[in-house]
Amino acid sequence: MATTAFPVNPVLTAIAMVYSNPAIALIADDVMPRVPTAKKFVWSNYDVAQGFSVPKTLVGRKSMPSEVDFTGTLVNDETLDYGLDDVVPNDEIEAWSSMIKPDRGGPPSPLDVSAMLVTKLIGLDREVRVAGRVFNTVNYAAGNQATLSGTGQWSDFANSNPLDAILAALDVPVYRPNVAVFGQATFTKLRQHPKIVQAVFGTAQTGGVVTRDQLAQVLEIQKVFVGAGFVNTAKKGQAVNNQRVWGKHASFLYVDKEAAVSQQPCWGFTAQWGGKVAGDIPEPKMGIRGSQRVRVAESVKEVTSAPALGYFFQNAVA
């Protein structure tokens, strides 16, 4: 019987025994792309009207051209540090070392496994933060959002018309959104909706589903992202209560990493200072033979820089 918490077993490694969200389920980096910055950074919040108000451009033979004045609010900001530690007893490291044979290999190092699992938790925390921004009415202009209910929700196949609603919404922001963001429950219903299926296949359909790429094509947007991750919302010590990170909503955003880098308008981005910090240091006071403290961290700040460049459907499905 094993005497350590780490399952030292060449067949059943720790990674195989731990449930976590697969990388494909997390979409935070796609929705709010990372942009390299300093620890303290500045971003510009411009008045939308400036780029759409046409001044007098006709110039008389001996006149001076009209003068324009572009003003914006410089926002001073700073990345925040997010990190986690895990303590790995030296007993487990020694047990792992004793079973590794050059000709047979073995399970990954307990330190490597610890770093990988801690990294996954940090990524899940970021996913929760980004979902909380994208699916939040405060991050959209007043006229760029709608709350659906009853027969208007897209889960009502008989009465709702999500295609009309989405196409109308895409015309509202001054920059047409180029990506769609759905919670998994929303996308599951939307991809089966008769109006959507008929629009994709061009004929009346009694059933069927559409893919993300097919939906993107019919909406004339670049990408469809679906948040499929789970998070345990129960307090420590209580029974597990896994819930979807991304709720039953839908957002349509203008996302452009290059625009964010060059201080041009986009709905949002993530400022990142440096890369992920990962390493281990001795922890002599923990465990009879001491331990190693594994740390993984990053310095980031999610920024909603242009709320007018998105549209949000709250409670898109029941």
List keywords for this structure.
single chain; 318 residues; alpha/beta; phage-related protein like fold; five-stranded mixed sheet; four-stranded mixed sheet; 13 strands; 25% helix; 27% strand; globular
Detailed description of the structure:
The protein is of the alpha/beta class and 318 residues long. The protein has a single domain (20-49, 72-314), classed as phage-related protein like fold, CATH 3.90.1690. 25% of the residues lie in helices and 27% in strands. The protein has nine helices and 13 strands. The chain has helices spanning 14-17, 28-31, 90-99, 110-134, 162-170, 184-190, 194-201, 212-219, 257-261; strands at 34-36, 40-46, 72-78, 80-89, 145-147, 179-183, 223-227, 230-232, 242-244, 250-253, 268-283, 291-304, 310-314. The strands form four sheets. It has a five-stranded mixed beta sheet. Strand 11 (268-283) and strand 12 (291-304) form a beta hairpin. The chain is globular, with a radius of gyration of 25 Å. The two termini are 49 Å apart. Mean pLDDT is 86; it is low at 1-19.
